[in-house]
Amino acid sequence: MTTASPERSGRRWLVTGAAGMLGRDLAELLGADDSVELTALTRADLDITDPAAVSAAVAGHQVVVNAAAWTDVDGAEAAEAAATEVNGAGVRRLAAACADHGALLLHVSTDYVFAGDGAVPYPEDAPTAPVNAYGRSKLVGEQAVAELLPETGYLVRTAWLYGEHGGNFVATMLKLAAQRETLDVVDDQQGQPTWSRDLAERLVALGHAALASTAPAGIYHGTASGRTTWFGLARAAYELSGLDPERIRPTTSAAFVRPAARPSFSVLGHGRWAEAGLPEPRDWRDGLAEALLRPAFAALRPGARLAEASGTP
């Protein structure tokens, strides 16, 4: 658990799931924000399925950012009840505690609440129709926030998240560059690769706007702008890392059968950010280019590891 000094001025924020990829980015950003007094709780610190613990943790905070979640998409197919306990019932307990204690709730949800059979970006009010257990579990959480916090609940859907502090597609592709000459990557699923740091910055900005009463409650889409496929993302990551993008070869989803169905179209619209007085998210390529300069990603490049081992700059 990380807790800021009680003498620090400003609004009190609580981040749950603070040891995860997004949670760590949120904790770093808010920890450096002089207007915030931060409490950052990991899963070991707070089990969001425990009503008494949740109520005690939320008490005294003005903003709660929920980054705690069951994120194992394939695992949810075999354990939907367990996934829903975290992503649905756990979120309901957080929302109820926020209602009891007068706190705003910023809850992170997913593109998987949609069917993924669209052809144009899903607007925030598009009908939901999840195609897998994970999506259904997250939708239960969304419904709880909308029901219990109609004026103070903020749902931020994201997708294709990658970052420095956890396993993710971009890191995997860079690691595999040292192990395989070529890689076959799915080219029939479209989405918006989103750097977790960009999402964290957007959540912080939305929280401040909510406190200032300039951001209406409801649903926002926290993905990067633009669109690509997993194949396109892998090629871009290689090119930006000085690797040969031709090593990435396109294939179809049929070549990688997995327990949970994946939406083929996960492109989200960003129309509501203007209502909050905030700009639309930047293009996914710009976020990727900046992310790959960070030490955690730079260290994954095969050339970087060889240079380090030889002592050359």
Automatic annotation (TrEMBL):
All copies of domain RmlD-like substrate binding, residue ranges: 13-292
UniProt keyword Transferase, yes or no: no
Enzyme class: oxidoreductase
Pathway(s) the chain acts in: Carbohydrate biosynthesis; dTDP-L-rhamnose biosynthesis
CDD domains: dTDP_HR_like_SDR_e
Keyword Oxidoreductase part of the UniProt annotation: yes
EC number of the protein: 1.1.1.133
SUPFAM superfamilies attached to this UniProt entry: NAD(P)-binding Rossmann-fold domains
Pfam family, one: RmlD_sub_bind
Family, as annotated: Belongs to the dTDP-4-dehydrorhamnose reductase family.
UniProt-listed NCBIfam families: rmlD
PANTHER family: DTDP-4-DEHYDRORHAMNOSE REDUCTASE, METHIONINE ADENOSYLTRANSFERASE 2 SUBUNIT BETA
Annotated protein name in UniProt: dTDP-4-dehydrorhamnose reductase
Species in which this protein is naturally found: Streptacidiphilus cavernicola
Source organism phylogeny: Bacteria, Bacillati, Actinomycetota, Actinomycetes, Kitasatosporales
Name of the encoding gene: rfbD
